[in-house]
Write a structure and sequence with these properties.
Elements: H1 3-12, E1 19-24, H2 28-44, E2 47-52, H3 55-63, E3 67-68, E4 77-82, E5 86-87, E6 93-94, H4 101-109, E7 111-118, E8 132-136, H5 141-150, E9 156-157, E10 159-160, E11 163-164, E12 172-176, H6 184-192, E13 197-200, E14 202-203, E15 209-212
Helix pairs in contact: 1-2
This protein binds ribulose-5-phosphate.
InterPro entries: NagB/RpiA_transferase-like, Ribose5P_isomerase_typA_subgr, Ribose5P_isomerase_type_A
Protein name: Ribose-5-phosphate isomerase A
Function: Catalyzes the reversible conversion of ribose-5-phosphate to ribulose 5-phosphate.
C-alpha cells in the first residue's frame, strides 16, 4: 500500500464527527479511507451514514459494513473525503482519473466540507500535467470530440479493453490536454455551457482542506 495515501487517509479520520453524514470519495486513496472509516465506526460505535461517489465506493462501503444510503435520502452531507489527480496551491484540482467525476462533483457540491487526501505526487504549481476528463453523453459525442480538437485540446476517448469506457451513468469520457490553457476558470465556464457535456473534472474552489500524506 502507498505510504503517502495511507498517511493522508489516516489523518482524515481526525475530522470525522461522532454522528453525521460522510461522503465517500472514489479511487485508491479514498478506498483506503473507506476501510479505515469502517474500522473506526465499528470500534467506536459511531452514528454515521454515508453516501458514495461511485458504484465502486458504494459496494466497498457496504461490504465493510458502513451504512451507505442514496444521496437523495439525506438533506446534506457533513464532510466528504475524496482523492484528487492534481492539486494546485490554491486547492483547485483535476479529478476524474477513476471516471467518477460526475457523482464526485454532485456529492462535493452538497457537502458542508470537502477534504482531499493525496500523496505528494499530486501537488503541482499549475494544473494540466494530468489530462482533464470530460464526461459526455454518447449521442453526438464525436462532434464534441472535434470541437475539442479545434480548441487545440488534443482529445482522446478513454478506453478499456479496446472499448470506450462507460461511466456509472453510461456516458463516455473524453480526456483533453489543458497544459496549454492559461485560464482554466474560463475553460470550466465554457465546458459548463456546452450541450452534451455532462460534467468535467475541473474542481475549482471546492476543496476546503488538503491532506498530503507522507511529506
Ligand atoms: C476518481 C477520482 C480520484 O479521486 C482520483 O483519480 C484519485 O485517485 P487515486 O487516489 O487512486 O490516486 O477523481 O474519479
Amino acid at each position: 500500500m502507498d505510504n503517502g495515501k495511507l498517511a493522508a487517509a489516516k489523518q482524515a479520520l481526525d475530522y470525522m464527527p461522532n454522528q453525521g453524514v460522510i461522503g465517500l470519495g472514489s479511487g485508491s486513496t479514498a478506498s483506503i479511507f473507506i476501510e479505515l472509516l469502517s474500522q473506526k465506526v465499528q470500534a467506536e460505535q459511531l452514528d454515521i451514514m454515508c453516501v458514495a461517489t461511485s458504484t465502486q465506493s458504494q459496494k466497498l462501503g457496504a461490504q465493510l459494513g458502513l451504512n451507505v444510503v442514496d444521496i437523495d435520502e439525506v438533506d446534506r452531507i457533513d464532510i466528504t473525503v475524496d482523492g484528487a489527480d492534481e492539486v494546485d496551491p490554491d486547492l483547485n484540482g483535476i479529478k476524474g482519473g477513476g471516471a467518477a467525476l460526475l457523482f464526485e462533483k454532485i456529492v462535493a457540491l452538497n457537502s458542508n466540507r470537502n477534504i482531499w487526501v493525496v500523496d505528494p505526487s499530486k501537488e503541482h504549481k499549475r494544473l494540466g500535467q494530468f489530462k482533464l476528463p470530460i464526461e459526455v453523453i454518447k449521442f453526438g459525442s464525436h462532434h464534441l470530440y472535434r470541437h475539442f480538437e479545434k480548441l487545440g485540446l488534443s482529445p482522446s476517448y478513454r478506453q478499456t479493453n479496446g472499448e470506450y469506457l462507460l461511466t456509472d451513468s453510461n456516458n463516455y469520457i473524453i480526456d483533453v490536454d489543458v497544459s496549454g490553457v492559461d485560464d482554466l476558470t474560463a475553460l470550466a465556464t465554457q465546458l459548463d455551457q456546452l450541450t452534451g457535456v455532462v460534467e468535467h473534472g475541473l474542481f475549482l474552489n471546492i476543496c476546503d482542506e488538503l491532506i498530503v500524506g507522507g511529506q
